[in-house]
Amino acid sequence: MSAATATTAPATAAPAAGDKKDVKDSKDAKDTKSDEKNEKVTSYPKNKIKILLLEGISQTATDMLVKEGFQVESVYKISESDLIKKLPDFHALGIRSKTQLTAKVLAAAKKLLTIGCFCIGTDQTDLDFAAKAGIAVFNVCRVCSRLSLVVINR
Question: What does the pLDDT read at residue 49?
């Protein structure tokens, strides 16, 4: 075998069977600290994460997110110019099918990390601009946003 095709063991090889100290140390490195109540800790405090829900995404969803500790604002109808003014303060955005998230709108979203499209498809979002800006866009298909929004981080 030539030097160009030779393989070497990875620098962080798995611990040998029965080597619990190494397993525990690697597990501890991955875990986040929690307080005495054993609550989950996020890398950014939930109470500082702002979520904007548009077009009548259910009150139940809003209530669930607030209960989880997020700051949530719901707006049924908003003009493009008002959305551009409002969006810079939000980290997450939930929309339905009428809101058009053009490059112009998304350019104003300096803190935006994710967009949830609670409708059929993501056609109303400029996916190329979102990708270049590092904004994750997801679609909840086959689920009525008026009935369901699951908070996964429990």
Answer: 95
